[in-house]
Specification:
It is a single chain. The chain is of the alpha/beta class. It has helices at 17-22, 25-36, 38-59, 63-117, 136-177, 194-202, 206-215, 217-222, 228-237, 239-255, 261-285, 332-349, 369-372, 376-395, 410-421, 470-478, 481-488, 528-538; strands spanning 119-121, 127-129, 292-298, 304-309, 317-322, 355-361, 402-408, 428-432, 452-455, 495-496, 499-500, 510-511. The strands form three sheets. Strands 3-4-6-5-7-8-9-12 form an eight-stranded mixed β-sheet. It has a two-stranded antiparallel ribbon with strand order 1-2.
């Protein structure tokens, strides 16, 4: 599947050295995107059949008309089944491209090591000492190490090739069989643990799973414990309906605009949500790497979204990013860009490692200072974040991934209170620009203190916050904005709104440095905090 040019010495089912060098992951990624582009075509043709059936009904009746309408309905159903199949093909090819990229990175690292150590690698991947640079006896350990690294890269590529070919073969066979399945019996009850949801899902046949994705996408798309691939398929199928719901809200508000400013404010919110949804849809349809997976979407209120870059079920390292105040659907792609920068730095530090980043914006983030001075919205988010992380553990393929949860600003309080009140399926926690995380010491978060990390920029305004005592609360609730701000700000210290600053030594965790980039600059390419985040994710 990788392509032509299999080296003569490569056994069947293996990948040759020259073949891996010649492989083009971007071409496979583009092929997957082309498959996904068929979804729009299928939906347009289905709408045309619907319109045609309506026209027939207006002027044709009888047995023949009934047969024609049934046939049109059948064709429409077949067209609609194209969507999940096209999404699945895109997923398979994108994941193949990602593993191919990792294999090529490992190969490049092995060749670079050989060049630096005076070891030669020929065009067939055979390794030997360069007698002009290093004596053979001294070069032997390096020769063995380089040969092993090359073999590892080729084995990874071969495994990816076999798996992708097998998955595509299963998809083709399912298409030949007609995608027919009876609705599976039973559904997980509300509140079912993600691990038990996964047991239920694993007990279904592939045809039953495809039926559920196609006919009950709203259920499958939001269930923690359902694998990433199925949730992504289901939520993508709902994108059009979500946009229609926003447009309906916009029309209703527009009709009431003369009644007051509330409707005008609502229109602005819906306009922003529509723009955010369109930007997110564009990212989902893009051939950009890594592929984006839509794990949750809600257009109510400020809007919510859960989006993964790379498949977390298949990555060795997964981090979940929880944004802070004012986060909403209107800027989901901007927040996703922050996660992407950490992921890019991970790739620079560990080129052959597969990592995934998840933007978890599945809570009602505060919009105003007086809201952010309370922990109610953070506590309300706890059960959902807990369940999501449990779901990541339950659906992961192979050995458990290293899971990191990273919270910024108010998002750090969400992470801290969730860890305190519910527990988090995480191997490390990271707090950036934190107003406090709801505990006084790292040991209260349920993880070893050595895996609790924090960073606060020297010029981050969060350093000026102090606990909102009686005077501050009065200022927030009843005074002018200037008085309120003064009541919530004070001189330097290690007490914040919600407990001790996690970046201070007394908190008991570990820290990494940040440059002077303010409250939102932790992801700046030149900020050492970006390296700090990536190293925690990688466990370095």
């Amino acid at each position: 599947m990788i392509g032509p040019g299999r080296a003569a010495h490569a056994a069947p089912g293996q990948v040759g050295y020259a073949q891996l060098w010649a492989a083009d992951p971007a071409a496979w990624r583009a092929t997957g995107t082309a498959w996904a582009s068929l979804i729009g075509l299928g939906e347009r043709r289905a709408r045309e059949l619907t319109a045609g059936a309506a026209a027939l009904r207006s002027g044709w009746s009888g047995r023949a008309a009934g047969s024609a309408e049934a046939r049109l309905a059948g064709l429409r159903a077949e067209l609609l089944t194209l969507a999940p199949a096209a999404i699945e093909a895109d997923q398979i090819l994108a994941e193949f491209a990602a593993r191919l990229t990792a294999a090529r990175a490992r190969l490049a690292a092995a060749v670079a090591l050989a060049a630096a150590a005076g070891v030669l690698v020929d065009r067939w991947g055979q390794v030997r000492p360069d007698p002009g640079r290093v004596p053979a006896d001294r070069a032997r350990p390096t020769v063995v190490g380089v040969a092993s690294a090359i073999r590892g890269a080729l084995d990874l590529a071969a495994a990816a090739d076999r798996e992708a070919a097998d998955r595509l073969g299963q998809l083709a066979e399912a298409a030949r069989s007609g995608w027919v399945a009876r609705p599976p019996p039973g559904r997980p009850a509300p509140g079912t643990a993600p691990a038990l949801v996964n047991v239920w899902w694993s007990g279904l046949t592939p045809a039953e799973r495809r039926w559920l994705v196609g006919y009950e996408p709203d259920l499958i798309g939001r269930l923690d414990g359902i694998p990433t691939a199925a949730r992504d398929q289901a939520n993508r199928l709902l994108l059009g309906a979500r946009r229609e719901a926003l447009l309906a809200q916009w029309g209703q508000l527009l009709a009431r605009v003369p009644r007051g400013l509330v409707e005008v404010t609502g229109l602005r919110r819906v306009d922003a949500a529509l723009a955010g949804l369109d930007a997110l849809a564009a990212r989902l349809a893009s051939p950009e790497t890594p592929r984006a997976y839509l794990l949750g979407l809600d257009v109510g209120g400020e809007g919510r979204a859960v989006v993964a870059l790379g498949n977390p079920d298949r990555a060795a390292g997964v981090f979940t990013y929880v944004p802070g105040m004012t986060a909403g659907l209107d800027d989901a792609t901007g927040e996703l860009g922050r996660a992407a920068r950490v992921l890019s730095r991970c790739a620079e530090l560990a080129p052959g490692e597969e990592t995934s980043a998840v933007l978890w914006l599945d809570y009602d983030a505060p919009d105003f200072l007086h809201e952010a001075a309370r922990d109610g919205q953070a506590r309300a988010a706890g059960d959902a974040l807990h369940r999501f992380q449990e779901g990541l553990r339950a659906t992961h393929d192979g050995p458990a991934a290293r899971q990191t949860v990273l919270g910024h600003s108010y998002g750090s309080l969400v992470v801290g209170t969730t860890a305190r009140d519910h527990g988090l399926a995480a191997d490390a926690l990271v707090f950036l620009g934190s107003p406090g995380v709801g505990v006084a010491h790292a040991s209260e978060l349920g993880l070893p203190a050595s895996q609790v990390w924090a960073s606060t920029a020297p010029d981050d305004v969060i350093r000026l916050t102090r606990p909102p005592g009686d005077l501050a609360r009065q200022a927030v609730l009843g005074a002018s904005p200037i008085t309120a701000l003064a009541g919530l700000l004070a001189g330097p210290g290690d007490e914040r709104w919600f407990g001790r600053d996690p970046a201070e030594p007394g908190f008991g965790g570990r820290t990494f440095p940040s440059g002077r980039y303010g409250h939102t600059g932790y992801w700046h390419p030149a900020n050492p905090a970006l390296d700090g985040m990536a190293r925690v994710v990688l466990g370095q």
